[in-house]
């Protein structure tokens, strides 16, 4: 039965089970709505779980080394007008002083204005 249920959105455990209208993860204890589970697969979230959308402003939460360069994108760098894409690096953006880059959503936090 667990092979037909989606994995846990918090810890990605495959051992989820259903209790009434909720899905539950036995490993981390997270509970979520069974109706929201299929739509949740396409949602890209930041490091603290905020849903990201095209055009959002985010800040970098840790120093990121730039591949092929000795430069570093510093903590707190504000990135405006992000674009969401598929794949491992799910954010395309222009970082001031660096130009066009791809970032992983796990290293950014959405700025709420």
TrEMBL record:
Residues 44-111 form the Protein YjdM C-terminal domain. Residues 4-33 form the Protein YjdM N-terminal domain. It comes from the Bacteria. Pfam families: YjdM (PF03831), Zn_Ribbon_YjdM (PF08274). Belongs to the YjdM family. PANTHER family: PROTEIN YJDM, PROTEIN YJDM-RELATED. This is Alkylphosphonate utilization protein. It comes from Marivivens donghaensis.
